[in-house]
Write a structure and sequence with these properties.
134 residues; 1 helix; Immunoglobulin-like; 8-stranded mixed β-sheet; mainly beta
Length: 134
């Protein structure tokens, strides 16, 4: 609840770790869409780079990345991986060739939930849920 004279409040939003004049900045990559189409054993995942140039590796797995949160106790299966480089403020479709395990999974299900784990240069790890559709 705003208070004080005039009943107004000053609101702001900032990325505290980002230094545009400094070296490198704090790159962050997000999923631009919550689903990816699978055609001819290739998943097309749309990624968005926010603050600085993003370069790294995208892995489609059955669990969150260990660096993003506590790892699951079951064995982690990698369904596919691809390297990417995205300029700051841009979106890009990353093509991930699917492994044999994911092709078997996609044959059984029309939609499959997986984790999109990205590892950026510098070791930063981010995870997000992704639905693969055929």
């Amino acid at each position: 609840m705003p208070g004080g004279p005039g009943r107004y409040a000053v609101l702001f939003n900032a990325d505290w770790g980002y230094n545009p004049g400094g070296s490198g900045g704090n790159p962050t990559v997000n999923l631009a869409k919550e689903f990816a189409w699978v055609r001819r054993n290739v998943a097309r995942v749309k990624l968005a780079c926010l603050l600085a140039k993003c370069a790294g590796q995208l892995r489609l797995q059955n669990a969150k990345a260990p660096g993003a949160a506590a790892a699951a106790t079951r064995k982690t299966v990698t369904y596919g991986r691809a390297k990417f480089t995205i300029p700051a403020g841009e979106k890009k479709v990353v093509k991930v060739r699917l492994s044999r395990a994911s092709r078997t999974l996609m044959r059984k299900h029309e939609k499959t939930r997986v984790w999109a784990n990205t590892t950026l240069e510098g070791g930063r790890v981010e995870s997000a849920k992704l639905v693969l559709k055929r």
